[in-house]
Amino acid sequence: MIGPKQERGVYIHVPFCQQACSYCNFYFVTGQRDHTDFITAAIREIKESSEFFGEDRIIHSIYFGGGTPSRLTLKELESILNQVHSTFTVSTDAEITLEANPEDITKDIVNAWFNLGVNRISLGIQSFNDKLLALMRRAHDGKEALHAASIIKQSSFRNFSFDLIIGQIHQDLEMLNQDLRYLESFKPPHLSTYLLTVEEKTHLHKEIQRKRLPDVADRTQEEHYLHLMKWAQEWKYTHYETSSFTLDGYHARHNANYWNHSPYLGIGPSAHSFDGKKRYWNSRNLNEYIASATASRKEECLSRIDFINEKIMLGLRQSKGIVIDHLGLSEIERRALDKSLQAVNPLHIEYDSRNIRLSNEGKLYADGIASTLFL
Ligand code: SF4
Known about the structure:
The protein has 375 residues and is of the alpha/beta class. 37% of the residues lie in helices and 22% in strands.
């Protein structure tokens, strides 16, 4: 099922965080922890996954995500990276990304990451505003965000991305504009911007349930997202995926693999993998993962309809949209899709006999529109 021209990526989930951010539902553990057992388990899992991509072991991207990968020591990071290099053939132009948080950034560590072979940093800024950062329970403040952004901007890294969260509770348009003005001064080659979502079991969800905080306002989210799109256009960013903006040549290769249904191997607790046919996911429990990554791994075989629906969802998230021919629909399915298209607000979607794309306004409702189009 893996096509010869498809790129392949390896994702490593590093589950350690300084503290729990109020909105986060990723898998992570907090506090001062010894990383040794995790590193040993991750290295073992990489070794045991040597056949994951079949005979051809070439990979095109490595992504350290989390959690907070910047909490690993240089030696720990190096040992994982070395194992990836000795298990797979890492293509010479591979994208190697490290997610980092502002509180971990120093000139020395950024240089050391670069010398280790990391060639892209994704910095979790989220906002430069102290009040919003405190509400999000981030470990950094605005000053640290600015300091970290300056260090990365002045470093040897040409390829870096900043994360921003918009449509936040108590965030008004002036606050968003202030964040955007800071971005203008750094001009990151890539931006990942997320509308704040309230996930169950998070601190934020509880605070809203207890009426200590208001819920996120749909109008604020719409206003912020549309404002951001306008700003990005003025600043020459291409909006190539619902949450992703890039200057020329800085598309996130690893993430594009997910969106294009390319195979990827996920290492670490809660990490997901996809081999072209099946999806696998590791235990969301560090101790279980350490005991045996492969024994705790679950799997699911995707049906043809699952594949089509995923293609619809992933296609809609991208500016190139859905190429209808690539869905491989039967005549009956094609007629069903045409009927579903008529149920979508015409202001939210643009389509002809070959492609389906979301309008700018439609991008706000990508998930809902995708489920309307599902077979
Ligand atoms: S640092 Fe990232 S992964 Fe960790 S709790 Fe905060 S948002 Fe979640």
